[in-house]
Amino acid sequence: MTVNTGTEIDGKLSLDLKAYVERALEEDIATGDVTTGSIVSPQSEIASRLVAKQAGIVAGIEVAATAFSLLDQNIQFTAMVAEGSSVETGTVVAEVTGSAQAIFTAERTALNFLGRMSGIATLTGRFVEAIAGTQAKILDTRKTAPGLRALDKLAVKYGGGYNHRHGLYDMVLIKDNHIDYAGGIAEALSRVRASGTPLEIEVEVRNLQELGLAIELGVKRILLDNMSAETMMKAVEINARRAKLEASGNVTLENVRNIAETGVDYISIGELTHSAKVFDVSLKLKSEPEEVS
Question: For a tag site, which of 6, 93, 193, 249 has the least CB within 10 Å?
Answer without folding.
Answer: 6
